[in-house]
Amino acid sequence: MPFYPGPGLGGHCIPIDPHYLSWKARQYNFEARFIDLAGNVNSAMPEFVVQRVSDALNAQKRPLNGSRIHIIGVAYKRDVNDLRESPALEVIELLAHRGATITYTDPYVPELKHAGLDLKSIDEKDMHKGIDCGVIITDHKVFDYTAMVERFPLLVDTRNALKGVTSDAIFRL
Asked: Which is catalytic among the residues 13, 16, 37, 41?
C-alpha cells in the first residue's frame, strides 16, 4: 500500500506503533533514528499546513487572524468516520488559536467537539459561503472537487485532491 505526503498521520496504529518499536530497540542499545525522524516530521505537519494557509491568505493580502477557514474532511483517512489522531484536529486547534473562525464539512463526521469548539458539519453545497479559504485535509471520494475550485476564493490542498487542476487560487503542500 503506497503512502503519500499529507497534513500528518492519523489513526490508531501508524502514528503510535513505530514509537513502541523504537523504544524496544533502545532497550537493546539500537538507535532507530529513521523512526524518530519520521515521527518528528509527521508531528510537524499540522503546523506546516497552518503556515501554508497563512501564506495563501497573505498572498491575497488577508491575515489569518479573523479569516473564515473551512476544513474539508476531518476524519483521519478517506471514506471513514474515525477521528483518532486525525491531523485535522490539530490543524483546527492551531487555526483557532491564531484567531481564525473554523467551520468544516465531513459527510462521515456530523459533529465535532475539540479544543473548546463545538462544530457541526456543513452540507457540501453550502460549505463555501462566506469563507476566505478552504483547506482539504481528508480527500473523501464523495467530494466534488471541481465545484470546490469554482466556488472557493482560495484552497489549500494537503492531499493532492486537485491534481492536474491549475488555478492561482490553489496552494499545495
From this structure: 13
